Amino acid sequence: MTQSSAPLRIGTRGSPLALVQARTVRARLAAVLGTSEEAIELVIIRTTGDAIQDRPLADAGGKGLFTKEIEEALLDGRIDLAVHSAKDVPTFLPDGLMLAACLEREDPRDVFISHKAGSLAELPQGASLGTTSPRRQAIAKRIRPDLRIVPLRGNVETRLRKLADGGMDATILALAGMKRLGLERHATKIMDVHEFLPAAGQGAIAIEIRESDIRTREILARIDHADTSTVLACERAFLGVLDGSCKTPIGGYAEISSGEIHLRGLLAHPDGDPSIAYELRGPRGDAVRIGTEAGQHVKREAPRSLLD
């Protein structure tokens, strides 16, 4: 079989959500290539992030734990492309790798889920909120400083089950993942992005390849959603200036309207205060510059305690 007709191999985590996302990419690729979905191989790779279930990922090395082994498979040539939740992709990629495409972004908002209250504001005093996301903790504590944060790990179904079992009073999850799994009925309240700023990349599926793989890059260009790739580049530029780790509460969300991109960014202390919020807009062609300038502004204004 020649290189030009060789089947593609997609690397993915094995969680239910990761498999839904990888199969969505496979279906798009099969359609543009005029082949069957079965002709495109899914290679399931267990990552360090999947193996660690007993503590927050921030305590185990931070961002990149859901991508490290998949990226190693890319660099070794065992797979041709990797499908990630964009918000899990490290701020800086290994040498030789690049993000080549995105599918159209799903709803980026977070959802509040509770069997005891209709919103964060309605939770009883001192209620427990299950999350290991520093961003969600920080924003929730800005709204409700009295909340008690309890660790909550696992895939979406596991977190919903732990909540139902009474291990905590509420949790916050990404709406995109719940919709992709058909579980959005569990959402108690969908939170507006102005109230609860999403993570950079939240709701987007990012596809990573080897920079040298021109064939795969050209194929992926046929399924790329340009607006999503543009806003992701803006949000990741914002992250890049702040060098956000898994322990740093950072929110970043960009939108495109009438040829203009509008970025909202947030850097906060895990307890919610202090925090620095900033907005910047400009031509969509300047997406990376806008993200970079917004990050530089926040970095200049932020107290040392936030950057440390």
Please characterize this protein's 3D structure.
The chain is α/β, with parallel strands linked by helices and 308 residues long. 32% of the residues lie in helices and 22% in strands. The chain has ten helices and 13 strands. The protein has helices at 16-33, 48-51, 68-76, 134-143, 156-164, 175-180, 214-220, 226-242, 287-301, 304-307; strands at 9-12, 41-44, 81-85, 97-102, 110-114, 128-130, 148-150, 170-174, 189-190, 205-210, 250-257, 260-268, 275-283. The strands form three sheets. The protein has a five-stranded mixed β-sheet, with helices on both faces. Strands 7-6-8-5-9 form a five-stranded mixed β-sheet. It has a three-stranded antiparallel β-sheet with strand order 11-12-13. Helix 8 (226-242) packs parallel to helix 9 (287-301). The radius of gyration is 19 Å and the shape is globular. The protein starts with 8 loop residues before the first strand and ends with a helix. The mean pLDDT is 91.
Q: Tell me the strand percentage band.
A: 15-25%
End-to-end CA span: 53 Å
Give the helix proportion (percent range). 25-40%
Shape assignment = globular
Which strand order does the major sheet show? 2-1-3-10-4
| Global structural class | alpha/beta
- Give the ordered list of helices and strands: EHEHHEEEEHEHEHEEHHEEEHH
Rg (C-alpha, Å): 19 Å
Keywords for this entry:
globular; five-stranded mixed β-sheet; alpha/beta
Summarize the structure.
The chain is built from 10 helices and 13 strands.
Layout: helices, strands, pairs:
Layout: E1 9-12, H1 16-33, E2 41-44, H2 48-51, H3 68-76, E3 81-85, E4 97-102, E5 110-114, E6 128-130, H4 134-143, E7 148-150, H5 156-164, E8 170-174, H6 175-180, E9 189-190, E10 205-210, H7 214-220, H8 226-242, E11 250-257, E12 260-268, E13 275-283, H9 287-301, H10 304-307
Parallel strand pairs: 1-2, 1-3, 6-7, 6-8
Antiparallel strand pairs: 3-10, 4-10, 5-8, 5-9, 11-12, 12-13
Helix pairs in contact: 8-9
